[in-house]
Amino acid sequence: MESFDMIIIGSGHNALITGAYLTRAGRSVLVLEKNDRPGGFVRTEELTLPGFKHDVYAAAHPLFTTGPAYMELKDALEARGLTYLNTDLPTGVSMEDGATAVVPRSFEDFAAEAERLAPGDGTALAALFEQLNPHVNDVFGLFSMDLSGPEAAPVLQRLLHDGNGPGYSSFARSLFTTARHAVNEFKSPVMRSMLASWVTHLGRTPDEVGSGIWVPLTAMALMAGGMPIPSGGSEQLALALARLVKDQGGEIRTNSLVERIIVKNDRAVGVRTADGVVYAAKQAVVASTTPDQLYLTLLADSDVPPALRTQAKQFRYGRGCVQIHLALAEPPRWPDARFNRVGQPHLTDGLDGFTLAIAQGTADLLPAKPTFTVDCPTNLDASRAPAGKAIMRIQVLEVPVRPRGDAAGRIDVGDGTWTPALTERFTERVLEVAGKHIPNIPSAVIGKYVVTPDTIARFNPNAGPGDPYGGAHDLAQSYLFRPLPGQPGHRSAIPNVYMLGAATWPGHGVNGGSGYIVAQQLLSQ
What we know:
525 residues, FAD/NAD(P)-binding domain, 7-stranded mixed beta sheet
């Protein structure tokens, strides 16, 4: 039986970050991945036509490039081929009536853009940021801390209490506001749409309690990080991390699905794969998974507190995502030339229309008028498509994982399975909306590939029925309640079994936070 200090189950970017730190410290590490290559949702493929390189799932990495893992591993990753390309206009919005706006990385330019939209909105933008400014360092610092640990305790105390009495701070109050409330002071509907829509990329919705704080946080994060993409595609991050792990002595084995974590005397001692291969773990097992998989499958044979197992059964997944990958005969012809530099803009008919589409998705109906983001990586990286051609990704969030009807009453959803016919009809609807913003869509489309919720579910079990964010992010499953109320952190009920990934703080997306947190916990022992 082969033996390693640490065994890591799964090889998403967080798992690879943990592996990079552990191997750098001299630990022997084995990473086991069920798919054909490491990286999880960080994957690039020629999905449509030869020479067109699409990011199948995750694309830009603004939170990762501003986090501690990148800062500390940057030189090693760059030496292994990772190079980021960025823009000074991370996001924006295109309205159906032709109005547009952008978010520049410079606050002065952003305030000027707000003022252009409506006199006084530049002042409102400054006020939005000023409310958060006293807390911003503490807030972003928490993204690299286990919220249940002693390091985070004084930070949480400062944030929740103002120090002037027994009451709670204005920041604590903001945790229970909605995104719609957060943008109420803006006169421009364009500005309100541009800022409030981004909370859906954090697993929230604009009218959901708890979404309000993410309006200024997301804007600040995008201004700080931009919308960086790896040259050559998102998977270049996974490739560089995997090379680093291997160069430092670690092993990565693909096509290896872990079936059980073996526990003896209340400690993990190894894992068993679906092929019956057993590997011994001398120090710890790290699982990139969700709590239901951990406690109901990987630790099914172990002595876990019944209450925790019950909570794992109650873990909820959110709605699904449809991603439409397009090969284009020419770059998109934006009426606003600035959008040739915008990283990932929203296309919408306004905040009310956006929330109506979300409400329809919540009711398990295909939205009658979807609103979504688009990104065109070839604006920054011409190597992603043949000369003169382009790629585009349309990301439609908050769609039903299994629709039971169509809000417009025009698409027969059958039994809710994302069949080729259903996928094609919905794709046609999305492209029709896109054409109202981009005149040469769909005429420039020469190839397409559509990722649906069931595609996501089959590829990654952490998505449950098709939730790309690894579990619902409402208040009941956020912060100290993530992944479970009985496990408010990355340490599981088995002392030497750790969790990381989207189901743990700081959540989904390419941020590297949980990988960094678990690495520090393991190396501090």
